[in-house]
Design goal:
Alpha-Beta Plaits; globular; 5-stranded mixed sheet; about 90 residues; about 25% helix; alpha+beta
Length: about 90
């Protein structure tokens, strides 16, 4: 089990990026959250099996069709044992 804190830079707000994240988190059975930040980046914390987290991060580079991802910055952080779902924070 691994957990990553991720920042996504580029044209990633107003293009369905958070919903894209939720969909792929569901596909890979991951938990965590995603939210927009005031500086127009997207912040994510994602947790699950290491291979699934790595597949999730590869998908983040593509993004939804209207997105233009310029950078994905990921750092490993401590896992949260009581987390059970992936949510969009507003």
């Amino acid at each position: 089990m691994v957990r990553n804190h991720i920042l996504i830079k580029g044209r990633v707000q107003g293009v369905g990026y958070r919903y894209f994240c939720q969909n792929i988190a569901d596909v890979y059975e991951l938990t965590g959250w995603v939210k927009n930040l005031p500086d127009e980046t997207v912040e994510i914390e994602i947790q699950g099996e290491i291979e699934n987290v790595n597949l999730f991060k590869k998908e983040l580079k593509m993004g939804p069709s209207l997105a233009n991802v310029s950078e994905v910055i990921a750092n490993e952080i401590n896992t949260i044992s009581e987390e059970t779902s992936f949510v969009i924070n507003f």
